[in-house]
Design a protein that fits this description.
globular; about 270 residues; alpha/beta; seven-stranded parallel beta sheet; Rossmann fold; about 15% strand; about 40% helix
Length: about 270
């Protein structure tokens, strides 16, 4: 058994939504390190996106756009189809969080969060299904769709991010449902539920000594290597038989008996 080959992504083509910063960039870097021929990253901020793609090297390319809308999703699918005859790996990572007290939680925050976190992964996968099916044609190896949810879809957190937590819980179940259908096309759908990683969305993690680490049994936040290893595992031959499951990468937070020892946002 060639274990190195099990985890190799040599020659494969990947797309990482929201891949220009945070864990999206960490995963894009991991996919490139595992041998992907090309990794495309998307995002709304064209300049930041282009800079990130340049920093990730010549095998990374940027496709700017807003995939929170159906028109933006269609435009991304069209742009990628013009460049590639198939897509081996789709990482649905783009997301947004919105926090507000229960009594003042706004409809626009709810809609924006549900649209990008839950609707976009469904309709983007739908639009890219021909490219994914082309990659899986012949049955030699499946195409992969990897949904990036969150431990907040598995466990209540103290912050009043109602739509975010609901969207991530929904994405975990959507992963199961889509997996049951798309495996017929030799497209394997699975997911990752990250815990605390340093990112702009998880602003509390930027603190040098974040209080929430008291609730994490591993007593540290996740690193780029942690999330890169998870996405490479699921994207490679090693993860071909993992269908519909969501891999939790959180230092033990979800399964811990430790209480959350950091304050609620209140309101």
């Amino acid at each position: 058994m060639d274990v190195a080959k099990l985890f190799s992504l040599e020659g494969r083509v990947a797309l990482v939504t929201g891949g220009y910063r945070g864990i999206g960039r960490m995963m894009a870097e991991g996919l490139l390190g595992a041998g992907c021929a090309r990794v495309y990253v998307t995002g709304r901020k064209a300049e930041a996106l282009a800079a990130a793609a340049a920093g990730l090297g010549p095998r990374c390319a940027a496709i700017p756009g807003d995939i929170a809308t159906l028109d933006g999703i269609a435009a991304l699918a069209e742009a990628l189809t013009a460049r590639e005859p198939h897509l081996d790996i789709l990482v649905n990572n783009a997301g947004v969080a919105w926090g507000a007290p229960f009594g003042r939680y706004p409809e626009d925050g709810w809609d924006r969060t549900l649209d990008l976190n839950l609707k976009t992964p469904f309709f983007l996968t739908q639009q890219l299904r021909p490219l994914l099916a082309a990659a899986g044609a012949g049955g030699e190896r499946p195409a992969k769709v990897i949904m990036i949810s969150s431990v907040d879809g598995q466990k209540i957190n103290p912050w009043e991010t109602y739509a975010y937590q609901a969207s991530k819980a929904g994405l975990i179940h959507l992963t199961r449902r889509m997996a049951a259908r798309l495996v017929r096309d030799n497209i394997v759908v699975s997911g990752i539920a990250p815990g605390h990683f340093p990112s702009q969305m998880n602003r509390a993690a930027i603190d040098p000594e974040p209080a929430f680490l008291k609730a994490v049994p591993a007593r540290r936040m996740g690193t780029a290597e942690d999330i890169a290893a998870a996405v490479v595992y699921l994207a490679s031959r090693a993860g071909d038989y993992v269908v519909g499951e969501t891999l939790t990468v959180d230092g033990g937070l979800v399964n811990s008996a430790l209480p959350d020892e950091f304050p609620s946002a209140g309101g």
